[in-house]
Each structure stands twice: as C-alpha cells, then as structure tokens.
Amino acid sequence: MGTQLTKTVHVGEQTLAIIKDVNIHVNAGEFVVIMGKSGSGKSTLLGLLAALDYPDSGSVELSGQVLSSLDEDALAVIRQRDMGFVFQSFHLLPTLTVAENIAFPLDIARRPNKARVDELIDAVGLGHRRNSLPNQLSGGEQQRTAVARALVSQPKIVFADEPTGNLDEQNAAQVMQLLLDLRQQVGSALVVVTHDPALAAMADRVITMHDGRVVAS
Ligand SMILES: Nc1ncnc2c1ncn2[C@@H]1O[C@H](COP(=O)(O)OP(=O)(O)OP(=O)(O)O)[C@@H](O)[C@H]1O
C-alpha cells in the first residue's frame, strides 16, 4: 500500500529524513504489526499509510486508488468510509456519549444504523454505559468505545497507534482481543504500531523499523 515512501522534516536549518524509501504492502484482511525503537519512524509511517500526512515522495494506494494525489476533502471521505482509527490516548469526542461516539462515523457519512451501533456496544460490553460521557469511563472502557467506533463503518483497514499503551495488562489484553475479534468479523486489515511483544506474537506479519527504514519483515 506504500511504495518508495520518503518523508523529511525541517529542524532549524537542517532537513532530516525520517522515512527513507519504505515499501510496504498490506493484504486484504491481514494483521500487520510495526515495531522498532522509539524514534525509528513507526508513527510517521502509520500517518503516511493512513493518509493523515503526505509523503515527500512515493505513493500510498488503497484498493488500487492512489491516495497521495488526492486533496484533503477527497481523503476525508476515504478515511470516513474505508478506514478506522484507534489511538493511544483514545480521542473520543468529550461531549458525546458512548453510543454517540460509536455512531459518529456513520452519522457524518449520513448512514445512521442504530442496529449496528447497538450490536457493537454489546460486543464491547458497554451496554450499561451507553449514555455515559467519556470522562465518566475508565481507560479500558474508553478504548473499547474507540475500538467499536473504528469498526462501525466496516472499514477496509484499521490503523492503531499504541492502542494498549495507556492501559494495564488486563485491559490491554481485553481491548486487543476485541479489536482482533471485531476486525475478523468485518474482514478489515489491521496495522498496529506497538512495543508489545505479546501483540506482535498474534500478528500475521511483523515489520521492524530502524532509523526510518524497514529492516525486517
Ligand atoms: N514534525 C517533526 N519535526 C521534527 N522531527 C520529527 C517530526 N515528526 C517526527 N520527528 C522525528 O522523526 C523521528 C521518527 O518519529 P516517530 O514519531 O515516527 O517515531 P516512533 O518510532 O513512532 O517513536 P515512538 O515509539 O517514540 O512513538 C523521531 O526522531 C522524531 O523526533
């Protein structure tokens, strides 16, 4: 999905290459983990693949469509329709309830589907919390809400950046299992940046980054 990707940043007068000629292909339904030391470029690469950021050169494709040549409006539609996101710090909308947060991607796409939202609330075990606001939830409950939201529109691919990084071991295991189970039901591919070896052990493939390059796949 990413071909010959490079990304540079400017720090003072210096130009630093932080992604260097990375090629990465993710098959439909595949679960790929990206590992590597802090600062090796994992989050930057995820941002490029998820079209949250533009590469300096190279291209990103999703199902044959070249994303890196699209403008921001067109990308917003693709992110909404074909992608799901889970972040380390949950990123729920603070004024919306659990049910409203999960429904949000369908609502902005004008595709309300109450039955689908209810199904997911039950699947992540938050039936009793459906009308709670994010600040009334534990970290694990917030991340389970984020997992349901990421899968609600049955995306082609889900991107997760350290999804268990703010959770204790038990909550981390529960959130990850839900993410894996739900994406298997939907058939989405899953790309996860993590430092967690337990998670890497469950992946179809592990990509290791070092200093902006893929060093092992
Ligand atoms: N906007 C920016 N300006 C300057 N440097 C940046 C910028 N974004 C990223 N970097 C640098 O690029 C490198 C890669 O960053 P990135 O966040 O992708 O690494 P990472 O592997 O995800 O690290 P971590 O595991 O700590 O989250 C780091 O050295 C970082 O400091």
UniProtKB/TrEMBL annotation:
Q: Which GO terms describe its cellular component?
A: plasma membrane; transmembrane transporter complex
Per UniProt, residues of the ABC transporter domain are 3-217
Supply the Pfam families for this chain: ABC_tran (PF00005)
Keywords (A to Z) from UniProt = ATP-binding, Nucleotide-binding, Transport
Q: Mind telling me which Gene3D superfamilies this protein's record contains?
A: P-loop containing nucleotide triphosphate hydrolases
Concerning InterPro entries, the annotation shows: AAA+_ATPase, ABC_transporter-like_ATP-bd, ABC_transpr_LolD-like, MacB-like_ATP-bd, P-loop_NTPase
Per its record, what are the GO molecular function terms? Answer: ATP binding; ATP hydrolysis activity; transmembrane transporter activity
The UniProt entry's sequence similarity note says: Belongs to the ABC transporter superfamily. Macrolide exporter (TC 3.A.1.122) family.
PANTHER family to which the protein is assigned, alphabetical: ABC TRANSPORTER ABCH.1, IMPORT ATP-BINDING PROTEIN
Q: What is this protein called?
A: ABC transporter
Source organism per UniProt: Psychrobacter urativorans
Taxonomic classification: Bacteria, Pseudomonadati, Pseudomonadota, Gammaproteobacteria, Moraxellales
